[in-house]
Amino acid sequence: SAADKGGWSSFMLKEITEEPDAVGDTLRERIHEGDVVVPELEELGDDFLRDIDRITIVAAGTASYAGQVSTYAIESWARVPVDVQLAHEFRYRDPIITPTTLVVSISQSGETMDTLMAVKHARELGARTISICNTQGATIPRESDAAIYTHAGPEVAVASTKAFVAQITALYLLGLHLARVKDTLPAGERRAMVAELQAVPAKIGFALGVHDRITQLAHWMADTRSVLFLGRHVGYPIALEGALKLKELAYIHAEGFAAGELKHGPIALIEPGVPVFVIVPSPRHSEEMHRKVISNIQEIRARGARVIAVAEQADAAVLPFADEVIPLPLAGKFFEPLIAVVPLQIFAMELAAAKGLDVDQPRNLAKSVTVE
Ligand code: G6P
C-alpha cells in the first residue's frame, strides 16, 4: 500500500524522494497546450475570478510557509494583493472580507482544526473559499466553495515535505489561472512560467543528488546547539521552513530570518562557529539582490560564522565566501524555493538521524492537529 515504507529507512526519506512526482502529478490535467486551466477554479465563475481584489491565505505550520512563498508570484502575475495569516490568528483579528475577497486555505491533511475554523469564519463573513488539500474528501475541502487537490500521495512522516512542494505548485497554478482570466500577464510569459513549472521535477531530482554531501555535513554538525537560516525574497520563507524542519526533527534551536533584517538585530546572534545556512538567489535574476546576500555572507563570515550557501551551481561569486556550497540547478526566480527547500529537508532529517532520533515520529508533534 501507499502507507508502506517499502525498502526505505523512513517514510520521510521515501516522501522526500517522491517530491518530483508530487509536483508533476499536481500539474497533470491542469495544463493544456502550454497554458494553465484549473478546472476546479472554473466552478467559481470567471466573473468572480476577474473581480477578486484581495487574497487571504490561511494555514498553519509548513503549509503557511508554502503560502508565504506563493505571495511573490501571485502578486506579480495576477496583480492582486496576497497576505498570509496563521489560521489561529485570523479569526481574532476582525479580518477584512468583502464580496471580492478570496480566502485560500492550505492544509495537507484537510483536518487541521485551526485552519478549518478559519475557513468557517471566512465563509460566515461572506468570503468565497478555496481549499488546497492533499487528502481527498477531508473536512476542509468539503467546507470550501472549491478545492484544488495536491497530488503528492499520502504523507505519513509527521514533518511535511512532499506536500509542501505540491502546495506551492498548486498555488502557482492558481496564480497563473488568475493571470489568464484577469489578463495581467502576456500569454508568452504565462507559457514561460508553465515551462518553468514543468521543469521543476527534474531539478528537484538534481537536488536529491546532493544527499550524500548533506549527510556528511549533518554528521559533522551533530552536536550543534543552534542553527540560523537566512533568505531574501522567496528565499525568506524557505529560511523559515528550513528552521522549522530542524526544530521539529532534530530538537535544535533554529531560526530563519530575512537576510535584509540581519543588521536590524539577528547579527547580534552571530558568534564564532555558529552555522548559518544562506539561500542565495541566482545573480541571473537580480544582480542587486545577489550582491546584497553575498555582502550578508561576508558580514557574518567576518564574525566567525560557518556559512553553508545554498546556491546556483554556476554562481562562482559565492565560492570564496562560503565554507560550504550546496549547488543547485538554475531555476526561474519564483521557482528557486521549490528546489532550495530540498537540501534543507534532507539536512534536518539526516541531523536527526545522526542524533539517533525517530525522523518519522518526532516527540510532542502530531501529523494532524485536530484540536484548537
Ligand atoms: C502539524 C504538523 C506540521 C504541519 C501542520 C499543518 O503541526 O506537525 O508538519 O505543517 O500541522 O498541517 P496541515 O495538515 O494543515 O497541512
Arithmetic mean of pLDDT: 96
What overall form do the CA principal axes indicate?
globular
Q: What proportion of the residues is helical, as a percent range?
A: 40-55%
Strand order of the largest sheet: 4-3-5-6-7
Strand content: 15-25%
Specify the number of helices.
Answer: 14
Largest sheet: 5 strands, parallel
Structural class: alpha/beta
SSE series: HHEEHHEHEHEHEHEHHHEHEEHEEH
Which descriptors apply to this entry?
single chain; 372 residues; alpha/beta; five-stranded parallel sheet; 14 helices; 12 strands; globular; binds 6-O-phosphono-alpha-D-glucopyranose
Explain this structure:
This protein is an alpha/beta fold and about 375 residues long. The protein contains 14 helices and twelve strands. The strands form three sheets. It has a five-stranded parallel sheet with strand order 4-3-5-6-7, with helices on both faces. The protein has a five-stranded parallel sheet with strand order 9-8-10-11-12, sandwiched between helices. Strand 6 (about 130-135), helix 8 and strand 7 (about 145-150) form a beta-alpha-beta unit. The protein is globular and about 55 Å long. The two termini are about 30 Å apart. The relative contact order is 0.14. The model has no long low-confidence stretch (mean pLDDT about 95). The structure holds 6-O-phosphono-alpha-D-glucopyranose. 6-O-phosphono-alpha-D-glucopyranose binds near residues 108, 112, 158 and 368. Its EC number is 2.6.1.16.
